Amino acid sequence: MSxxxxxxxxxxxxxxxxxxxxxxxxxxxxxxxxxTDSDIADLIRGKLAAHNIAFFAAMKDVEQTEIKxxxxxxxxxxxxxxxxxxxxxxxxxxxxCTWRGEADDWGDKGVSKAATLGExxxxxxxxxxxxxxxxxxxxxxxxxxxxxxxxGRTQPPTPPNGKQPQHWAKNTERAAAxxxxxxxxxxxxxxxxxxxxxxxxxxxxxxxEHAAKVKVEALVLARQEQPAPKVT
Length: 232
What we know:
Elements: H1 7-17, E1 25-27, E2 32-34, H2 37-50, E3 53-68, E4 74-88, E5 94-105, H3 110-126, E6 143-144, E7 149-150, H4 172-185, H5 190-197, H6 209-225
Antiparallel strand pairs: 1-2, 3-4, 4-5, 6-7
Helix pairs in contact: 2-3
């Protein structure tokens, strides 16, 4: 029996070697660091090479659906059907997995975005990697995106100094960025925006920022689905 580790043993070893993915990306609007697709690819590529494992990606199919923005711009929702294959250079062992990536784009980058996101999350899930990124945690906001209902913990734990961090809506820069996104990018009238949250000013919004954006997006979708008035 050969003492050479097989493909699965090598992949298990890589899982044990990886701790948390480094973060070089910066979301300046919401003020947090995040792991980019390059951070993940650079980390995994070195580990695979060290264990003599080759990695191949293939795009099997692409679906594109036309979408419209709140301002009437045309874009495409792209779904890339992908296949990823690991091959052990020592034993010839092979493992192939199907995956898919999705992305919305208003130019000509939909396919590349979907492929890049698909590979990023395939590697994250395959090697059980942690990024610590809020957008990667479905329980982060306490809001079920399927129906907008809050579930579980909705407030962050109290920090060691006993002081809760300032709510995003009371932060002038973050509130201004949210207002610009909602009224300009999503084309929601200011009075309708405040009415949706039952407040007179943005600083009174109680929802966390992610939940607030989900509510605005639901509002935009509801407005788009309203039948056009009949012309008599």
